[in-house]
């Protein structure tokens, strides 16, 4: 913008070479005076001026003479408001209309932009889901031997965070719980193996293929063997639903989908070891946790155990989480406890009355041994 | 600076005469031949400063090169011959006011006083115009040399004008274009092979190219034999 009411712009006229020239415009009393860089002068009275918006930016103001023999244009944002005030408001109505049009056009443009972005996001999401679906289906088609290979390698590369427990009381208690659950696992032929680790962590996790790690901290925190059965059923479901492999495949993304379709699983194994080393292999999303809860409820009911025991364990974690040492491990890897409890109880109710066959384990003894594995006085089961 | 464009339209070259101290700024790799008393300076900024790293990045996203070559004559009557990468035409546009919007890769050379920048044309145009997401914006005063794939034809638009996607070379800032259907029916537009078109409105110069590289590639691709080994 020039000083006062002068603006830099241009003009179209048959009288200038090339029919277009840059010009300096001044808003006078009766009209717009334009002077080209070559010194040619033009004048357009306000009374004859027809305004229009356009140009590459959409923000250029055009002032046309009748029959369009002269057109002045300017992209300065201050030009349009100045035109509204110039010449005792002769162009005020046109300026007002154009301003409204500009606002409307901006809104429409913004709306189109947002819609366009939304479409791009939706297409991207669709493609992502499509590949996720391809990946999931490819995982389902893989033999269990792949899960076992991945699980074994992951187990070897992971830090167990404590010594393995051989206390016969604990080993036999866990074996009894597992023997009740195994016949009802969703996938036949999967070799479940539980490793009890002496650590205060209130946690358990399952690697692909059925390698389960159970910490003594969880055995201490659980109030009954049914609650431990609920947790182990949940972890077994992660294996039978092949959540670990799907987690790895998702980390590989599109490449995994293509490789799996081609039958190449070497990438899966490499990523499994990488994820296991960073403690990410046993982290599952909300969808996978819910699916495992649902499967655990089914397995518990089939095994003659009250499925609500899993929800009861969640209550302990939720209420006493702050007081139970190491509970944060379970809470961090198993979020949304309140909603999940509600869902487990609702699904249990739908199953109706179950003929329950509670465990005949001495749980107080198990708890004592969990506090000091191999050292408790009543070490005999 | 005197510019002569020869061998039009299929194998055009720009023969530029420079007097001592005069400079021409051009796309990296555009020089075909030159006199011995020309020195070249490569930078991301325009000659004499201005722009720099950010401008270089903008040019890069618009399909041009990060760097610019500035050829300066050290003696009288020096000559440089410039040409585009693909077979095609060269057009000269005299920029006196406002700016010229150029599709990515069609800017070939310009006076050192011309600022080369990038501008975003909006998501819709980016997706459907058949051109780059970002366009080159030339502003200042001086000559701009435009290159194309195939022949360039110049249109003086006054009102509305339609160009097929992928055929725009450059247009003046007083023109505006929107994506539109080639015919009233969207299905008819696609069945007729035209699909979407660019509908220009306003008044100003528009430069179009007779061919576009993607169509040429699509036609040529199936005829090429697979590379062995």
UniProtKB/TrEMBL annotation, chain A:
Residue ranges constituting the Peptidase M48 domain according to the UniProt record: 173-347
Species assigned in the record: Corallococcus sicarius
GO molecular function, one term: metal ion binding
GO cellular component terms, A-Z: membrane
GO biological process: proteolysis involved in protein catabolic process
Region feature (Disordered): 362-381
Transmembrane annotation, as ranges: 110-128
Keyword match Membrane: yes
Keywords for this protein: Hydrolase, Membrane, Metal-binding, Metalloprotease, Protease, Transmembrane, Transmembrane helix, Zinc
Matching PANTHER family: METALLOENDOPEPTIDASE OMA1 (PTHR22726), METALLOENDOPEPTIDASE OMA1, MITOCHONDRIAL (PTHR22726:SF1)
Cofactor binding, note field: Binds 1 zinc ion per subunit.
Keyword S-adenosyl-L-methionine attributed: no
InterPro entries, sorted: Mito/Outer_Membr_Metalloprot (IPR051156), Peptidase_M48 (IPR001915)
Full protein name: Peptidase M48
Cofactor: Zn(2+)
Family membership: Belongs to the peptidase M48 family.
Automatic annotation (TrEMBL), chain B:
Superkingdom classification of source: Bacteria
UniProt xrefs under InterPro entries: AIM24, AIM24_sf, Trp_RNA-bd_attenuator-like_dom
NCBIfam families membership: TIGR00266 family protein
PANTHER family hit by this protein: ALTERED INHERITANCE OF MITOCHONDRIA PROTEIN 24, MITOCHONDRIAL, TRYPTOPHAN RNA-BINDING ATTENUATOR PROTEIN-LIKE PROTEIN
Name the UniProt record assigns to this protein: TIGR00266 family protein
Provenance organism: Corallococcus sicarius
């Amino acid at each position: 913008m020039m000083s006062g009411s002068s603006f830099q712009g241009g003009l179209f006229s048959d009288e200038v070479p090339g029919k277009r020239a840059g010009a300096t415009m001044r808003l006078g009393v009766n009209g717009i005076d334009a002077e080209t860089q070559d010194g040619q002068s033009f004048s357009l009275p306000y009374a004859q001026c027809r305004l229009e918006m356009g140009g590459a930016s959409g923000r250029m103001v055009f002032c046309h003479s009748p029959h369009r023999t002269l057109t002045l244009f300017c992209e300065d944002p201050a030009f349009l408001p100045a035109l509204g005030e110039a010449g005792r408001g002769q162009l005020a109505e046109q300026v007002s209309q154009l301003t409204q049009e500009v606002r409307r056009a901006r809104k429409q443009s913004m709306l189109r932009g947002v819609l366009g972005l939304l479409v791009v996001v939706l297409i991207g999401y669709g493609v992502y889901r499509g590949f996720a679906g391809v990946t999931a289906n490819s995982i389902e088609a893989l033999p269990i031997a792949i899960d076992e290979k991945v699980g074994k390698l992951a187990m070897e590369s992971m830090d167990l965070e404590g010594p393995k427990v051989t206390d016969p009381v604990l080993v036999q208690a866990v074996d009894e719980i597992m023997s009740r659950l195994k016949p009802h696992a969703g996938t036949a032929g999967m070799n479940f193996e539980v490793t009890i680790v002496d650590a205060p962590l209130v946690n358990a996790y399952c690697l692909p293929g059925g390698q389960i790690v159970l910490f003594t901290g969880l055995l201490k925190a659980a109030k009954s063997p049914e609650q431990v059965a609920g947790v182990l059923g949940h972890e077994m479901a992660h294996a039978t639903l092949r959540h670990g492999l799907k987690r790895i495949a998702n980390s590989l993304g599109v490449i995994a989908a293509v490789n799996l379709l081609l039958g190449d699983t070497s990438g899966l194994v490499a990523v499994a070891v990488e994820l296991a080393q960073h403690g990410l292999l046993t982290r599952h999303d909300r969808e996978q946790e819910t699916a495992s809860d649902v499967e655990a409820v089914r397995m518990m009911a089939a095994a003659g155990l009250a499925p609500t025991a899993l929800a009861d364990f969640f209550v302990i974690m939720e209420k006493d989480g702050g007081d139970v040492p190491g509970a944060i491990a379970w809470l961090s890897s198993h979020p949304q406890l309140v909603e999940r409890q509600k869902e487990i109880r609702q699904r249990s109710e739908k199953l109706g009355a179950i003929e329950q066959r509670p465990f005949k384990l001495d749980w107080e003894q198990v708890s004592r041994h969990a506090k000091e594995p191999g050292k408790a006085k009543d070490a005999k089961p | 600076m005197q510019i002569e464009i020869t061998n039009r339209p299929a194998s055009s070259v720009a023969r530029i005469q420079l007097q001592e101290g005069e400079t021409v700024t051009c796309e990296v790799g555009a020089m075909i031949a030159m006199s011995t008393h020309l020195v070249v300076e490569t930078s991301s900024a325009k000659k004499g400063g201005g722009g720099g790293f950010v401008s270089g990045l903008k040019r890069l996203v618009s399909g041009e090169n990060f760097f610019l070559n500035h050829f300066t004559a050290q003696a009288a009557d020096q000559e440089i011959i410039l040409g585009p990468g693909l077979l095609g035409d060269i057009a000269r546009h005299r920029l006196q006011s406002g700016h010229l919007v150029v599709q990515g890769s069609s800017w070939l050379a310009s006076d050192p006083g011309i600022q080369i920048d990038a501008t975003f044309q909006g998501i819709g145009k980016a997706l459907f115009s058949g051109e780059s997401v970002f366009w080159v914006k030339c502003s200042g005063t001086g000559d701009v040399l435009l290159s194309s794939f195939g022949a360039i034809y110049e249109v003086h638009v006054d009102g509305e004008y339609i160009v097929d996607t992928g055929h725009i070379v450059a247009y003046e800032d007083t023109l505006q274009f929107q994506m539109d259907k080639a015919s009233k029916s969207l299905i008819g537009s696609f069945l007729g092979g035209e699909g979407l078109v660019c509908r220009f409105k306003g008044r100003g110069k528009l430069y179009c190219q007779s061919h576009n590289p993607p169509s040429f590639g699509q036609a040529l691709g199936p005829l090429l034999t697979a590379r062995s080994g």
